[in-house]
Target: Gluconate:H+ symporter
Amino acid sequence: MNALLVGVSQLQSSIPQGLLPFARDIPEVSLNPAALLISIVTGVAILIILVSWAKVHPFLAIMLAALITGIGSGFGLMNTVHAFLDGFGDTTKSVGILVGIGAMLGAVLMVTGATGVLVDVLISKSSRKMLPWTMALIGSLIGLPLFFDVGLIIMAPVIIMVTRKSKMPLMMIAMPALAGLCAMQALVPPHPGPTAALQTFENGSMGITMGMGIVLAIPLVIICGPLFAKYSTRIVPRGAPDTFAMADKEDGVEGRRKPSFGLSLLCVTMPAILLLITSIIMMVRPDLHDSKEMGAQILQFIGNPEIALLISLVFASLTLFVTTRYPWEKLNDEAGKSLRPIAGIVFILGAGGGFKNLLIDTGIGDMITKFVENTNISIILIAWVIAVFVRVATGSSTVSAITTAGILEPTATALAYDPIQTGLLVLAIGAGSFIFSFVNDAGLWLVKEYFGFTLPEMFKTWTVMTCLISIVGLVLVWGLGLFLL
Model:
């Protein structure tokens, strides 16, 4: 265990400064591996029973499961509490504002008719058979510059309204869009996982890795999106939920002036446009990341997801108010009302983050990593396997990517990997880090609450889809490596 803690310390010191928010100091504790594994299995089992059978609210169930896991493993009473609270605070700080602003933006787009205009055009231009493919394309485009949480917040109203108006099963519309968001998150910088891994290696190229990631994401989205949706629809055949009272908002739009398709599309995609532009500029000029010049500071400011969403909310509110003549006071009232139902989501996400960070602090991911590190297999497969185990143990794709890249960096340096080989290694890590979204993953709870799925339904569809993304992603990376090398 001492050697493990030294390795973790060395790994943390190698993480770029810009990624330090994703890395946390791990308390120096010595836990019995068997007790730790038993406590984790027990905690997860209790969580599933509480949510699925006893119908306990997920926030309370996750918190109880986390406490049982930490205390049962021998981590200590106060260490368990502090680890959970730290994770809760970190998650709500980063995701809570995004969810709140995103919900307000969604309400503004809904009540002014902007979302309805987009949906009408999508349905009129796409046949019923082509709608899943259209949603996969939109999800991929939105997911290219946006983190998964932000992309989901923007896409959720569109997904639900398309489902309502097309009268198609929810899974046929939602799963392709979610696959597009997930594939980009797993494989394409500037998302945290692949970016963290890329910056750990000496010869990494952002442009080459991004290009290869986009190429691989195309077949990945096709397989895990429209094709997989046929399976998931058999599991969950029902239509759209009335999340956030969308039916009431939609009914209020009838008879009012509606915005143009161009303006509606701009309001929906503005966060993606702002983040994409700033990301490209930062990739071309990496020196701007640490620059104190006013121009660089403005770019960094706009490139912050919270600020990009806030700018988009203000822009959408003003332009749609002028265009549609929707009463300003009522518009603000609807935006404010949208915050009420997402309070539960924020608490669930915070609890999921607390559980995740408790697992990270107990060292389960590092113990499994050290075990897998000594296996004698291909470095691409090693990268994927290590990322898989750390992801399963911690529930964090970013922590998985950072940990795996830190372990393999000396090997890649010793083998003098060029930018293409390094990019393939990063993509293998990204694919592995996205496997098996489970109860310790905040993304699972976000999708569950937005679309009204039960926990068993999430395991049979969403969790299976993330496993498929990871496994198919590995096969595609391997195939691309055989072609390029």
